[in-house]
């Protein structure tokens, strides 16, 4: 939702500032939508950690560590998921890699959630 608001806001602002109506939709997708898709593994892993552990300090600690790592992530190796929103290896490779990892994390987290007992 925030990605769509960013894209729509960029279009409206560009028209309001009289930049013209020749909107580069490919560049808009490259800078708005693709980093969100590349960040899905991080979002899904944080969600799974928050649901999995009753102690929220684990999810918060890993989130803070990920934030610190992402400050220098552009120069980090490609196996770190915090690098993927920067797309250093090109858009298609990064999107494919992040989508596959996001699906794997989603399957693992759904399997973990289904096998949990509900306590009342």
Question: Could you list some keywords that capture this structure?
Answer:
about 120 residues, mainly alpha, elongated
Summarize the structure.
This protein is an all-alpha fold.
Q: Count all strands and give the number.
A: 0
Q: Could you say which overall geometry the principal axes of the C-alpha atoms support?
A: elongated
Strand content: under 5%
Instruction: Classify the secondary structure makeup into a structural class.
Output: mainly alpha
Distance between the terminal alpha carbons, to the nearest Å? 34 Å
Write the H/E string, N to C: HHHHH
- Rg of Cα set: 18 Å
Report the total helices.
Answer: 5
Runs in which pLDDT lies below 50 for 5 or more consecutive residues are none
Q: Work out the helicity level.
A: 55-70%
The averaged pLDDT comes out at 86
Main beta sheet: none
Topology:
Blueprint: H1 2-16, H2 25-38, H3 40-52, H4 56-71, H5 91-114
Helix pairs in contact: 1-2, 2-5, 3-4, 3-5
What does this structure look like?
This protein is an all-alpha fold and 120 residues long. The protein is 68% helix and 0% strand. Helix 1 (2-16) runs antiparallel to helix 2. It is elongated. The chain starts with a helix and ends in a 6-residue tail after the last helix. The model has no long low-confidence stretch (mean pLDDT 86).
């Amino acid at each position: 939702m925030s990605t769509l608001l960013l894209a729509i806001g960029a279009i409206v602002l560009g028209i309001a500032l009289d930049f013209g109506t020749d909107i580069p939709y490919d560049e808009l997708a490259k800078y708005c939508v693709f980093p969100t898709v590349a960040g899905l593994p991080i979002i899904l892993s944080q969600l799974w950690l928050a649901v999995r552990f009753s102690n929220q300090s684990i999810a918060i600690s890993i989130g803070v560590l990920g934030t610190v790592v992402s400050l220098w992530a552009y120069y980090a190796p490609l196996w770190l998921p915090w690098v993927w929103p920067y797309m250093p290896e090109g858009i298609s490779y990064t999107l494919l890699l992040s989508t596959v990892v996001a699906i794997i994390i989603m399957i693992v987290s759904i399997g973990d959630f289904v096998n949990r007992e509900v306590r009342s």
